[in-house]
Design a protein that fits this description.
The structure is a homodimer. By secondary structure, chain A is an all-alpha fold. The first copy, chain A, has 9 helices and no strands. The structure holds a DNA duplex.
Chain lengths: 196, 196
Amino acid sequence: MVNDSGQQAAGAAGPKRKDARRNQQILLDAAASVFVASGVEAPVRDIAARAGVGVGTIYRHFPTRADLIVAVYRHQVDACAEAGPALLASRESPYEALAQWIDRFVDFLVTKHGLAGALQSDNAGFDGLHAYFLDRLVPVCGQLLDAAADRGEIRPGFGGLELMRGVGNLCIGADSDPRYDARRMVALLIAGLRRT
Amino acid sequence: MVNDSGQQAAGAAGPKRKDARRNQQILLDAAASVFVASGVEAPVRDIAARAGVGVGTIYRHFPTRADLIVAVYRHQVDACAEAGPALLASRESPYEALAQWIDRFVDFLVTKHGLAGALQSDNAGFDGLHAYFLDRLVPVCGQLLDAAADRGEIRPGFGGLELMRGVGNLCIGADSDPRYDARRMVALLIAGLRRT
DNA sequence: AACGATACGGAACACTGTTCCGCTTATCAA
DNA sequence: TTGATAAGCGGAACAGTGTTCCGTATCGTT
């Protein structure tokens, strides 16, 4: 139920007709461009225009804007999720692994204009986006937190969900205001996790 | 330029005509009710309906939605601002004063459905809101931070603006998701401030 | 009472995301 | 090759925003 739209499990072929498959790719490319230029909240019509396609075509491939955004960033989110266990395995300290993983996540968010804002769950219409990010990343974050807590490096009792949301929230508006440095605030939050 | 709309410096009389003054008060009350019931992002039309007034009347008194929100919460923001120096004077530890002041601010934000979200500066149309809150609270926060830094209770080099924005961001969506406890995340952030 | 300034109501505008359906076109069987 | 058919497409139309505009009603004053 999380996301069934547009793309499919690894390697599948997509829509039957050739033109449809082509358009799906065109749409992903156009959306990526427009997101870079105007942020993820860019009007659907702009994306359609950029792709040289009608808005109806977008909605056939991606039932909602959130699905399109998920499709565009899916690979990066997956890569981030996979980096978690890898970091945990390669570092001496789970806390260090956690900190680096969060860094990576923040980098991702901050470089995508407006994405952090779109992740708010109460932001009607972006439920799917919220759901995919959380489904994918919360378990990883939880694993890192648990490992660090088991070693006694951090205070116990924090869940992946709240940390992810906290970090995500801190990244909102990180672009669009040079006086606010989200990375610094996130660093503070992570520092606060340390054992007292 | 920050905010000149609707209200005026302490004690002034408001619009000339009696009905206009009356409507302004009705509007403030109606807006307050609707904000409690439906959040600060409630449609302007809803507020107009609740007040028994046309939308044009709202815009005559409050040129933009942000101005209306500012007017509704002005007193509470001011009270919060004034609590800063008071706390600083009455506590032994500036850090303690800072922590309590932040608590108070968080309480305010969290109990106002959607207000934290509306505070985002990149949220087009809410510039006035953003500006008023920041103008009023950033200096107070900065003062508390400086006092704590001078005592060596926290790491130096943090400004009021970034802390206020960080705290504000952490409060986004605090209602509407019982799994996310904004107060807890803010506490983490403040804990992270402590000297290492 | 009459008049001018002020304020009101709500239709209209510009902009969203999303749905719908007549038309086009790719695909495949004959 | 040629229909027939289903899949896909475009963009007008719908529903919902915030905001503007202006004819009308009301207030306060002369």
